[in-house]
Amino acid sequence: MKGRALIVDDERSMCELLQVGLTKRGFDVAVRTSAAEGFSLLQNEDFDVLVTDLNMPGMSGIELCERAAANRPDMPVVVLTAFGSLETATAAIRAGAYDFITKPVELDALQISLERAVQHRALRSEVKRLRKAVAASQPLPDLLGASSSMKQVYDFIERVSETDASVLITGESGTGKELVAKALHERSQRRSGPLVAVNCAAMPEGLLESELFGHVRGAFTDAKEAHPGLFTQANGGTLFLDEIGELPLSLQPKLLRALQERKVRPVGGDTDVAFDARIVAATNRDLESAAAEHRFREDLYYRINVIHIAVPPLRARGTDVLLLGQHFVTHFAGAFGKNVHGISPAAAEKLVAYAWPGNVRELQNCVERAVALARFEEIVVEDLPEKVRSYKRTRLVLDSDDTSELIPLEELERRYILRVLERLGGNKSLTAQTLGLDRKTLYRKLLQYGAPADAKNGSLRSVSPAK
Q1: Which DSSP string do the residues of 176-228 spell out, in sequence order?
Q2: Could you give all domains of the chain from N- to C-terminal order, each with its CATH number?
């Protein structure tokens, strides 16, 4: 089988002639006698090549060619026409045609054209497959982790990187949202263009507006020269709007208009400037709740949140802490010129147990400090910051890949009672009422946990810490 071809011509006799001739030459051929019917079939079935007449009633062959090129860009189109003028050929090529053949059609010439078209499609598919295979064989730049939660992030990046859809990256501070944006850009078709980043929380409102949209000369006192703005600077690439949750409400309508119309109006200007950039935004805030509470424009939220990538906190990534820790050890040992190769088992246990409220950024700072202080070939417990060395887990962890962090129900009850008592300032009457217990039962449990029955505010420091 040389390939599957669809022939569209309003002359049924022509369709039948070509179908018989091409079938004898090894093609699988389907025919339709109108462009509308042909386009409908293309939406439901796969073909290696489309052969269409140009002059047909209703939808023309040029329009069919344009629609096919827009919806099936990988499928070549061969155009047939009885009018072999240069203008007709040019129109067909501009519409996305792969080849152009005049009537009356010579089957041998058509066969050669279709074989070349099918081969062209196969080569394009193979190049695309190999490009993806090479990319998949390499780790994402600067992103490390083998946990299931991070594998989901990698999968999302691979699936959406080649599209131009807007992406919203969410996650706590320090989780690596900017690295995800960088990976999206470097995996995209825009990787040869610029990656332009702006922190929406780092600039005052007036300066941020000028930076984003640009300004004309004389727009304000210090505007001695025109400034193009980051939207136009990102042409052909990606614009990364970091901390978009901090964008002032007054600027949000202008940003929404820019995203909808793909144009910006510089400060002080009276004409719009088109831009061509993919938009990737990031925030550590709950924008959905902010939109519901009118602290962030709902229409803007849905405009930037076409695709959502949630970056997990470090505490939910299990032993990724050690993988990242070893990476940072290698990096800083080289930077400092120190003979430090790894992390001792005792230090590793402390790193895994710690909650990392500052996420990967805090881990990086921790390891940098440890390598700088290290006296041996491995980082030991004494090299770690005091808060990491003395940390005792008190919060319940259910969002971790590490099953060793799951605890018995009895331990869960103990931690919860002590936490409620602590939050209520040691008031046992209010604690018992909140927990739905009588005071006698609460006193008994406190004694069982090692807390004195007459415990006052602050007495929980004498309770044995959770293991």
Answers
A1: -HHHHHHHHHHHSTTTTS-EEEEETTSS-HHHHHHHHH-B-TTSSTT--S-B-
A2: 3-131 (3.40.50.2300), 148-310 (3.40.50.300), 314-389 (1.10.8.60), 407-462 (1.10.10.60)
